[in-house]
Amino acid sequence: MTGFIGGGNMAEAIINGLLAASGDRIVVSDKSEERLDYLKKKYRVKTTTDNREVLSVSDVIILAVKPSDIGGVTAEIRDGITDRHLVVSIAAGIKLAYLSGRLKVKRLIRVMPNAPAFAGEGMSVVSPLEGTEKKDLKTVLDIFSTVGEVLVLSEDKMAAVTALSGSGPAFFAYFVESMAEAGVRMGISASDALVLTLQTASGTIKMLKQGQTPAELKQMVTSPGGTTAEGLYRLERNSLKAAVKEAVEAAARRAEELSGRQ
């Protein structure tokens, strides 16, 4: 059985993916009885307000609590963790060393999922504790592949991952918003401008995922002296690429700062 300690939005996304893919047996604990009632009614999962009950019936434990709550949760469950438990943490910024020190556990994996998991199109990055067995890694990869793509990287890449895929959806949404607003300024209705922008973004991503590089696609669309060339010139003149790089790097630095407070 898979147990979730914390029944928030990301836990719900993973529960939905797991049930759709394999119908796994699931138990969820949360301090909000209202939230548990919602999850029980919608997904027909077992629920409890007792985190230790999750340990007693589960082999895989997913820590899906807020980073600010991780200290209290680990203190509560550490005496109940045994060798049969595989512990998976999706608490943002919480490092493996902290968790292994608190829980005295060897079967431990950290995962950074992102918001598109809610739509089944997430990007989850998995960082196992050194010495993790292949079967445990496979278990975690199987779980998170139900909500999108999965990549295994060492934990020292997690700050960059947080900036790219964690913060990335907000950056893409900002660009989509800006494109649609430009359409409105030129006389297109807000709803039509959003449809145009979203479908253009979706089609572009599909082409890139099929193997075309960004440079190749850009060249394909751009004619000398044409409309695209003029628009790209303005983007370059306004240092958009530099601004994007600065935003991603700033997000990564902030992720490092926050994880260093443990």
Automatic annotation (TrEMBL):
Annotated protein name in UniProt: Pyrroline-5-carboxylate reductase
NCBIfam families found in the cross-reference section: proC
Entry's family note: Belongs to the pyrroline-5-carboxylate reductase family.
Biological process annotations from GO: L-proline biosynthetic process
Subcellular location: Cytoplasm
Record keyword Cytoplasm present: yes
Pathway(s) it belongs to: Amino-acid biosynthesis
Alphabetized UniProt keyword annotations: Amino-acid biosynthesis, Cytoplasm, NADP, Oxidoreductase, Proline biosynthesis
Protein EC: 1.5.1.2
Enzymatic class: oxidoreductase
Principal localisation: cytoplasm
A GO CC annotation given for this chain: cytoplasm
Domain Pyrroline-5-carboxylate reductase dimerisation, first and last residues per copy: 155-258
Domain Pyrroline-5-carboxylate reductase catalytic N-terminal, first and last residues per copy: 3-93
Entry annotated with the keyword NADP: yes
GO molecular function: pyrroline-5-carboxylate reductase activity
